[in-house]
Each structure stands twice: as C-alpha cells, then as structure tokens.
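PROTOCOL LOG
Step 1. Enter all chains and additional molecules of the complex.
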Amino acid sequence: MKKLYILVAMLLVSISALAQDGRSLYNKYSDYDNVEAVYISPAMFRLIGKIPDIQMEGENVNLAPIIKSLSGLYILTISNQDLAADLAADVNRFIQKGDYELLMEAKDNGEVTRMYTVGDERTVNSFVLLSRDGEETNFICIDGTIPRDQLEDLIAKAAAE
Amino acid sequence: MKTLEEISRLSAEDLERISVDESIPVPEELSGRVQAAVGRRETASLQPARSSARKYGASVFAVAAAISLFALGAVFLNRERTPKDTFDDPYLAYAEVEKAFAKITGTVSYGASKISESETTLDKLNYWK
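Step 2. Run joint prediction.
Step 3. Record the structure below.
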C-alpha cells in the first residue's frame, strides 16, 4: 500500500512538473466553453511573410521586421472567473519555472497587465502577456527567435505614437 | 518403544491413559522437538497465504502503475499535441497578430505615459524647491 501512495505522489509530481509552455496552456484551456482561442502556426507566419502585398504597417504596429522570426502565437480570452484563476495560476507557475523575466507590470482601474520575456541579450524566445480585470482575462504568448532590439524598437515606436 | 504405526492404531482413551502414566519415561528434549515440529508445520501452512497476499499486492501495484502511466501519457500527449491553425486566411491571421501587438504596445504606451506624468511631477517639485 505504501508503494501505491508513493506511486500516486510521484504521478502528481510528474504531472505538475511537465514542461508547461504557451502550447500546453493553449491545449489545456482552448476547448472550454466561454474561451476564445487563437493559434497561429509557424507555417502561417511563413506564409504571411511571403505575401508581398500584405499590409504590414497597421495604424500603430509595423510587424514587417519580425514577422518571419515568429514561430507561434497563442491567444486565450477567458470570461469564466474560475477558469481565469486557474489559467493565471498556471501562467505564474510556468513563468517561474521557465526563467521568464518580468518586463513590465501595469495596473489601471482594476486591470492588471504583466508582460514577461525569456531569452538572452540578443534574442527573445518567448513573450507572454497576462492581463486580468474583473470580467476578462487575456493571455498572449508569442514564441519565436525574435531579435530583442527589433522587438523593443517595434514596441517603443508603437507606444510613442 | 512403539512404532508410529502402532501408535496410530491406539484409541484416544489408550493415548490419554499412556499420557498420564508417569511410569513411562519421557525422552529428554521431547517437548522442544515437538514445539519445533509444530512451528515448522505452521510456517509451512502460512507460506502459501503469504505468497498469495504478496501476489495480490503486486497485481494491485501493477494495475495502479499501468493506470498512472496511462493517465500521465494522456495528459502529456494532450499538452504536446499541435493545435490547429485558427485561420486559413493569412490576412485574417495577420490581423490577429496585429491586434495582439496592439494590446502589447497599448500596455507599454500606458506605462510610458505614467512615467512621463511622474517625470513632469518631479520636474515641478524640483522647480519649487
């Protein structure tokens, strides 16, 4: 019986220790009701990058320099508060385990937004945004091999407009 | 001395009479030998029970291990499966990427404006010093 308890404990530890990333969170939450989910694959990013006449420059954001360096975009929008709390807990867990660095935290009228990146001085391998207010929780995860200076330039320029 | 065959033919009354007859000499260490024989018999009788209990425990453990591995595998495969693209149209996909970046830059913009406000306040405070 002791062995059984040890096995169950090991199982629980193994499940919680499974590598979590944007994809695993997307897979976990995207099938629930009241969850809006968007996934854009590396193939789609390559396709976007190859289309010559695509309007790369929007009102605020010019994505042309980095679009080909993206390898996955995961977006979850959750209105169910219990599910949102679970997602937030999972995101915090994978942020802590994945050596993510807090880029910015903003609090505005009850909305808390945190942005994290992981990578090195030159490259961002993953960017995560978690935004929560009383009604909705947004999770955005962008994976890729994004040159850090290009990403920072893009965000800085767009923010300055 | 009687043989085992002769003893087995004796009735219960005869055995009782012989057991209380103190004139019959009792061999030394008989008691110890009898206890040892009884102990060996009990050990032998317990052996299969223990073995079956061990087998039962092992099979429960094996079933639990199999279920656990299956559950772990299912969770792992579900997490690692490649999701399906939400959009087939690259234009729609691009619009969504742009929306995501707009959300990001909006937050940064808000942060930058707050920093700017606090700098202005600091400048004012420094002016009145």
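Step 4. Note key features.
Chain B touches chain A through 40 residues (CB under 8 Å).
The longest helix of chain B spans residues 30-80.
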